[in-house]
């Protein structure tokens, strides 16, 4: 039998649930209707940005999450870190033996930059300037000429004091009263001399200095000038001049040089106690001029003469220089008929005119004897040199003569006068003539007599010394050719 008293209550609960469901549907329908169009990216072309309440709610929630993460994550990471275990150090005091006061450790002194008993004087360092003499330096330092004379008299060889050069270094130790107590200077590359002045005289001490020569190799190609090629190759202008002098008998660097000419050179540099002191000498070199290859090997023969030789042992030095002056241009060549610039009529020009600044040194073209020094009509100040055999050379228009006189012997390359414009000349230049048995020859084209080769007994010694130099030059030339070849860039 059914209990009908409970039906009204069940009916009321059912009706309440239906009412709640209808209310929720109406409520959430309105919520979803509004949220369906929520977005943070609006069509800015259609309307400007406009934040509604819903936007602010979502934005605030996002910022809150970011702030909470910033606090929670570092705290969690710090909570998982373990503190390092402290390390305990123990200090032990040790008693070291005392070194006797009268002993010194040379090794420690060397590390400190000095040796036991090293010189502790306060030196005045003076470097020689151009045109200075040692007496000038003594006077500038307020030192007595008598001390200079004592220094000169105390040495068997005083050449280092009598013949000083710009760049030489002198050091002086001067007492409080201005008197000289010590003087220091270099005698050659490998000896340092210290003179001690006291009442009993002058005592000399000589310290040997370590000197070494380091061999270098360079290669250059002429593009603008020989000096520019030398700079690109990493050699100094002084070394370039030595290179030009070595090949100067075969190559006229004023008019024979061409773009694309090249050289390879083996030379040394002088180092003293690890520091570069100066340029050394060219030991061997090759020069390719207009496609022709020239070789120079430095060699000292059994008589003590050092000159450059070809590969077959023949001296590069010829009996005559091709050009006896460093000139800027050839202003007039050898000619059988030329209008004279002063006289105004046709006249043979029996020499070559080398234009150069007034005062440029003029060198003897070869060994010989001065047979004339004076004035000649047309030539002005003139020197004539008689050479071995039947050769003579004439040098005209000099501004002044060097310290020579008639009958004096001169060596090849020695200065005999200076460029000028004396006589019939329109500007400073050297007029140079070359005569064979009295007949004039063109100095630019005349065949110069060759120098005698090394004797057979010495030729073997020369070849033994030259062989490693030639091998190194061939290696340098070969590597340069390989690096400039198109194949070297590519396909292997």
Automatic annotation (TrEMBL):
GO biological process terms on file: proteolysis
Domain Opacity-associated protein A LysM-like: 122-200
Annotated keywords: Hydrolase, Membrane, Metal-binding, Metalloprotease, Protease, Transmembrane, Transmembrane helix, Zinc
GO molecular function annotation: metal ion binding; metalloendopeptidase activity; peptidoglycan binding
Pfam families for this protein: Csd3_N2, LysM_OapA, Peptidase_M23
M23ase beta-sheet core domain segment(s): 348-443
Cofactor: Zn(2+)
Nucleotide-binding among keywords: no
This protein's record includes keyword Transmembrane helix: yes
Spans traversing the lipid bilayer: 56-77
SUPFAM superfamilies per the UniProt record, alphabetical: Duplicated hybrid motif (SSF51261)
Domain of life: Bacteria
Residue span, Csd3-like second N-terminal domain: 216-335
Gene3D superfamilies in the cross-refs: 3.10.450.350, Glucose Permease (Domain IIA)
One Gene Ontology term, aspect cellular component: cell envelope
Main localisation: other
Record's subcellular location: Cell envelope
This protein's name: Metalloendopeptidase-like membrane protein
Organism: Dokdonella koreensis DS-123
Lineage, top ranks: Bacteria, Pseudomonadati, Pseudomonadota, Gammaproteobacteria, Lysobacterales
């Amino acid at each position: 039998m059914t209990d009908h008293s409970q039906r009204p209550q069940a009916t009321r609960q059912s009706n309440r649930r239906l009412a709640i469901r209808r209310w929720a549907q109406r409520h959430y329908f309105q919520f979803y209707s509004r949220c369906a169009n929520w977005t943070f990216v609006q069509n800015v072309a259609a309307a400007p940005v406009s934040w509604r309440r819903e936007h602010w709610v979502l934005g605030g929630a996002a910022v809150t999450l970011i702030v909470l993460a910033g606090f929670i994550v570092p705290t969690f990471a710090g909570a998982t870190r373990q503190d390092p275990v402290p390390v305990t150090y123990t200090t032990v005091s040790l008693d070291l033996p005392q070194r006797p006061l009268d002993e010194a450790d040379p090794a420690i002194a060397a590390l400190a930059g000095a040796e036991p008993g090293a010189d502790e004087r306060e030196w005045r360092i003076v470097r020689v300037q151009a045109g200075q003499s040692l007496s000038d330096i003594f006077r500038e330092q307020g030192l007595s000429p008598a001390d200079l004379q004592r220094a000169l008299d105390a040495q068997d060889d005083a050449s280092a004091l009598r013949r000083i050069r710009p760049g030489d270094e002198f050091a002086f130790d001067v007492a409080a009263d201005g008197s000289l107590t010590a003087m220091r200077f270099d005698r050659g590359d490998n000896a340092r001399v210290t003179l001690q002045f006291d009442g009993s005289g002058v005592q000399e001490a000589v310290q040997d200095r370590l000197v070494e020569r380091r061999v270098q190799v360079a290669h250059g190609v002429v593009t603008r000038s020989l000096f520019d090629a030398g700079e690109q190759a990493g050699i100094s202008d002084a070394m370039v001049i030595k290179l030009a002098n070595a090949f100067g008998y075969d190559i006229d660097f004023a008019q024979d040089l061409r773009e694309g000419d090249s050289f390879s050179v083996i030379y040394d540099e002088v180092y003293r106690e690890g520091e570069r002191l100066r340029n050394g000498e060219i030991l061997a070199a090759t020069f390719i001029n207009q496609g022709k290859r020239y070789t120079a090997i430095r060699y000292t023969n059994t008589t003590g003469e050092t000159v450059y030789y070809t590969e077959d042992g023949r001296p590069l030095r010829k009996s005559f220089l091709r050009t006896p002056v460093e000139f800027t241009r050839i202003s007039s060549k050898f000619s059988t008929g030329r209008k004279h610039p002063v006289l105004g009529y046709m006249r043979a020009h029996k020499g070559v005119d080398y234009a150069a600044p007034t005062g440029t040194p003029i060198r003897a073209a070869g060994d010989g004897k001065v047979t004339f020094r004076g004035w000649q009509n047309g030539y002005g100040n003139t020197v004539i040199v008689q050479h071995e055999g039947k050769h003579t050379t004439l040098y005209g228009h000099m501004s002044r003569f060097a310290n020579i006189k008639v009958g004096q012997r001169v060596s090849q390359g020695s200065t005999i006068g200076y460029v000028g414009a004396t006589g019939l000349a329109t500007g400073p230049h050297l007029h140079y003539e070359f005569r064979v048995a009295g007949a004039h020859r063109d100095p630019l084209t005349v065949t110069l007599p060759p120098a005698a080769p090394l004797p057979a007994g010495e030729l073997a010694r020369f070849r033994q010394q030259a062989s490693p130099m030639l091998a190194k030059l061939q290696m340098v030339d070969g590597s340069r050719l390989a690096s400039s070849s198109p194949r070297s860039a590519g396909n292997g």
